[in-house]
Amino acid sequence: MNKFIIAGAASVALLAGCAAEKAQQTQGAGTALKSTPASVIVSPNDDRQYATFTLPNQLEVMLVSDPAAEKSAASLSVSVGLLHDPMTQQGMAHYLEHMLFLGTERYPDTKGYTDFMTANGGQHNAYTWLDITNYMFKVNNPAFDEALDRFSDFFKAPKLYPEYTDKEKNAVNAEWSMRREMDYFGQFKLARNLMGEHPANRFLIGNLETLGDKEGSVLHTETVEFYERYYSANIMKLAMISNRPLDEMKALAAEYFGAIENKNIEDPTVTDKLDFSVVGGKRIHYVPNEDVKQLNIDFTIEDNSDQFAYKPNRFLSYLIGSEMPGTPAYQLKAMGLISNLNASASPTMYGNYGSFSIAIDLTDAGMQNREAIVATVMQYIELIREQGVDEKYFSEIKTSLNNRFRFLEKSDEFGYVSNLAAAMQEVPAQLAVASPYYYEAFDADAIENVLDQLTPERVRIWYISKNEPTDSQLHFYDGKYQVATISEEEKASWQQAPQIALSLPAVNTLLPEEFTVKTQPPQDKPELVIDNNDVKVWYYPSQAFGEQPRGEMTVYINNGMPETDAKATVMTALWTDLYNLQQSALMTEAGIAGMSMRLSDGNGISLRIGGFTDKQPELLTTALDALVVDVNAQNFAQAVDRYIRGLQNQGKRFPFYQAFDAYNNIIREGNFNTEQLIEAAQGLTPKDMQAFMQVLLSRNQLRIFAFGNYDKADLNNAVERVLAALPDERTTVPYDFRQYWQPQPGQKLVWQEDLSVADVAVIDMMVHPEPGYATRAAATVLRGHFRSAAFDKLRTEEQLAYAVGGLAAGIGDYTGFAMYIQTPVKDVAAMQQRFEQFKTEYVDMLGALTEEEFAQLKTSVLVTLKEAPKNMRDEVVPFMTDWYREKFDFDSEQQLIDAVEKVTMEDIKQFYQHTMLNDEAAHVSVQLRGTSFVEQPFADIKGATKITSLAEFHADMKTQ
Ligand SMILES: [Zn+2]
Predict the structure, then answer these.
(1) What pLDDT shows up at residue 178?
(2) For residues 631, 636, 640 and 646, what is the CA-based torsion angle, rounded to 10 degrees?
(3) Does domain 527-654+670-732 have CATH number 3.90.180.10?
(4) CB-proximal residues (5 Å) to ion ligand 1
(5) How far is the CA of 776 from the centre of ligand 1 (A)?
(6) CATH H-level superfamily of 748-956
(7) Distance 157 CA to ligand 1 centre (A)
(8) Across the strands, what pairs with 137?
(9) DSSP string of 164-203?
């Protein structure tokens, strides 16, 4: 179903929902494992109870009992997916996934499931991939029984209403329409097109062209047949987590899932063989929508996922992707030919075949030397064949995985069960938790077997840029291409001695040697522990995870540059880009050692170091030593090129993402139109950059936030190191924070923009006149109800979009309430008009809310707000948010909880009146017009100010 969670949580990966994000983590069927452990292997840090068993209907179950869990969750996966679609109804597996949400025998209401989840603090979703369909939900503990009853009925007696069969194909079509312009999907489609008769060569998502009644095929009939044929208990896996004891959960599993029919079907698999003399040895020229300069060396490999315990793909991608001195990534970066190199494998990408892929981002200089870059990588693979299959790398990877597994943290219940139900389809249940970390032995044969497939016969080399020759056009996706055969001459060049000196990676020096935990007295909130003229340090030891030898330190060099200075904005971005590029070897080494480091920009620069604390002092020193980046004419021009293309490529993203960007740019100072940033970037020189770095490092407000396993001496040391990295002559300037717009009564702001992609996106945001926690609390209670009402009406009933809903959003201390949509079927003005109608229609729906339903909504919101953090990241995020905004009471979360406790039914009705139905409420309307609607009008908002220049608007904008 892939509903979106907005408010920043929606990412491209999430949106790729039905697809991409699951492709990378497939594992094997476990046949190569020497012995399967008797019980579930979990981290020593995991004190939850686990059990696995098989119900009489052959449904395999994994239970996790966690007395501390405040939400319960379940996920059920079916071992059938897009590869098994009937060719008469391509997209069927995905489309059926959508249909199961629309009512069952016991719960026939089409919106009953969504409403139930909203009322009980729930979350639900599903995804479909080549060989799996996976459904999952999470809900407040007391609602778990009923949730299981509703959920399990999907797999026993779905309604599959014929009238919604006809409707829901539009939602699938809208989902396809969103992805049609995404280069990932176009390239994946082409990769499969080139596989001839292999079942991977098909359309996956489905649209109005492939789903529907046609001669010899009726959609509804085929939907029922597909369900009847494949939805069988013996190819399903179930994972559940809750606060109940295992025996109770076992009874629940039997009660609700024991009656799913076992049709004793064979696990659907694909066995078709590829002919590499036809499929391999190709060069593909591809013209994408985004302005990228990429080279992808892609080998088609046999599915070796059953060797997950020996990780041959991991071993090889570790060596090929290494950033250590002497490796291709290191050497080619040093020569200014590439900016990124990533090696990865996905062994079941095409069912019984997978892909081992080396993806490279090129500079212009690299574009001129593509054949030489390919030859370098091929020659390095040869070097690995000769010298690289060495147990020392196994030991290093194993240590890295062991360390991570030993201190593995809990994650959200929703994602956890979803991953478990997927993993159980691939590995023995006992290893479903551990398999990503489980490295049983060094297996040279397994590695050499993969190396034997990294050959010219199996390679496809992708040249991806705006300037490729093309002679063909994809169907169903944007993307032009041309396929050529790689010449024998070029292949022969791969056998020659390398022209660039290549060597295998040296050993990692940052692996932790000790896991000492520095016990600290309890603290209610972060404290300012060092405060002098030069630097301020806040410290907060983890209250919930004091046993973790981990910490996170942010060094924030906040600047005093004027918010109106576009050049300063551009230069901090270029600085972080060059820094992260020049330090990629260090970052990779730190990553393997269980640490992280990253420089990011925003009112200056901030360096964040995280992970195991043992070697953090060394990491911090090295990271700081390089803070002033090397700038020369070539690398500066390349950084500017990446920056400008990055800005331009934003315009190729999903329209509704672009709409939220436009909205965020309006409500906060310090933002600029894309053209203004590009102009600023084009006017800069390496000299400007060098001068800028000196100014920022010598005039700033220096702040550090340390969270986790540190003591006072660590903090003092860190301060010394940071000060040593900055100029001796330093001036402290006031802290600078980009302020939020102060909404004025009756003020209406409109942003209208023509897109270079097809769909329309609209955000209609109304701001409550009163700032403060009371209005924020009312909005927080109301939003779930409003969101499901909007979703039900505009998507399930009217089928206007795939991405649609309502939301509440903070604007500094103010609160706005909004509707948003991305639609392929309505123009901007018509969509705005439909929003206006819905705002009025909703009054009756809100009026029908009973006191009991209201109480339930409120309780659910409180359960979610009060949920204890599951890991260190969860624990620190609210404090960091307050820290950036200088809310040094660190109590924003608590204030909101206190305010929600006080919210009444009358409050939420008043809130609705004062925002959505209030002509005097401040209004922000974002209207993005896709290419399909360029002839239709924008929406006319009476009395509105049309913003054309963000810089001009912000120059006069009143701020909070
Ligand atoms: Zn979908």
Answers:
(1) 87
(2) -70
(3) no
(4) 2, 18, 175
(5) 32
(6) Metalloenzyme, LuxS/M16 peptidase-like (3.30.830.10)
(7) 21
(8) 74, 124
(9) HHHHHHHHHHHHHHHHTT-HHHHHHHHHHHTTTTSTTSS-
Helix pair 712-725, 616-625: axis angle to 10 deg: 10
Tokens describing residue 618: 């060394």
Per-residue pLDDT tens over the stretch 593-618: 999 999 999 899 999 999 999 999 99
Residue 37: per-residue pLDDT? 82
Q: What's the pLDDT at 518?
A: 93
Q: What is the pLDDT of residues 493-508, one digit of tens each?
A: 999 988 899 999 998 8
Q: Do 527-654+670-732 and 748-956 agree at the fold level? A: yes
Taking the C-alpha atoms of residue 738 and residue 666, their distance in angstroms, rounded to an integer, is 12
CA of 176 to the centre of ligand 1 (A): 9
| The two three-digit tokens of residue 913, written as one number | 């009146």
CA of 466 to the centre of ligand 1 (A): 30
How is the chain split into domains, by residue range? 527-654+670-732, 748-956
What digits encode the pLDDT tens for the residues 7-45? 222 222 223 334 333 333 333 333 456 677 889 999 999
Dist. CA 16–CA 14, nearest whole Å? 5
Give the whole-angstrom CA distance, residue 954 versus residue 666: 8
Q: Which two tokens stand for residue 204?
A: 């996956």
User: Taking the C-alpha atoms of 707, 590, 408 and 613 in order, what is their torsion angle to the nearest 10 degrees?
Assistant: -40
Tell me the pLDDT tens digit for each residue of 422-446.
999 999 999 999 999 999 999 999 9
Q: In DSSP terms, which residues pair with 668 in a beta bridge?
A: 740
Fill in the DSSP letter of residue 20. G
Mean pLDDT score of the chain: 93
State in Å: Cα 351 to ligand 1 middle.
20
How many whole angstroms from 286 Cα to the centroid of ligand 1?
27
DSSP state of 130: T
Residue 32 is predicted with a pLDDT of 53
Rounded to an integer, the average pLDDT of 735-764 is 95
The answer to whether the CB of 590 falls within 8 A of the CB of 510 is: yes
CA 475 to centroid of ligand 1, rounded, Å: 20
Interval 254-269: pLDDT, tens: 999 999 999 999 999 9
Instruction: Say how many Å lie between the CA of residue 95 and the centre of ligand 1.
Output: 7
How far, in Å, is the centroid of ligand 1 from the Cα of 172?
A: 6
Q: How far is the CA of 82 from the centre of ligand 1 (A)?
A: 12
Confidence (pLDDT) at 28: 38
Q: pLDDT tens-digit profile of 172-230?
A: 999 998 889 999 999 999 999 999 999 999 998 999 999 999 999 999 999 999 999 99
β strands within 3-70, DSSP E: 49-54, 60-65
pLDDT the model gives residue 34:
65
**Complete edge-to-edge strand list for the sheet that includes strand 123-129:** 49-54, 60-65, 236-242, 71-78, 132-140, 123-129
DSSP 3-state of 460: strand
**Tens digit of each residue's pLDDT (9 = 90 or more) over 314-355:** 999 999 999 999 999 999 999 999 999 999 999 999 999 999
With vertex at residue 359, the alpha carbon angle to CA 355 and CA 362, rounded to the nearest 5 degrees, is 160
Distance CA 16, CA 23 (A): 11
Give the Å distance between the CA of 127 and the centre of ligand 1. 7
If you write DSSP's letter for every residue of 523-564 in order, what string do you get? -SS-EEEEESSS-EEEEE--SS-TT--EEEEEEEEE----TT
- Under DSSP, the state recorded for 505 is P
Global pTM value? 0.92
